[in-house]
Amino acid sequence: MAELHNQRNRMDLNGRNIESLFLKMVRWKDCLDTDEENVNFARLDELNKIHSEEEESPGSQSQVHMHHVQTTLITTWEAGWNVTNAIQGIFVLGLPYALLHSGYSGLFLIILAAVFCCYTGKILIACLYEENEDGQLVRVRSTYEDIANACCRELFPKLGGRIVNVTQVMELIMTCILYLVVSGNLLSHSFPALPVTEGTWSAIAFVALLPCVFIKTLKLVSQFSFLCSLVHFVIHFVVITYCLTQMHRWSWATFSFSVEFEDFLVSVGVIIFSYTSQIFLPTLEGSMKHPDECRFMLNWTHFLACVFKTSFALTAFLTWGEETKEVITDNLPSALQTLVNLCLLMKALLSYPLPFFAVTEILYACVIQRNWKSSSKLTLLAVIFKSSILLLTLLMAVFVPHFALLMGLTGSITGAAMTFLLPSLFHLKLKWKKLMFLEKCADISIFLLGIFCSLAGVVCSIKGLLKVFGQK
Question: Residue 300: what pLDDT?
Answer without folding.
Answer: 95
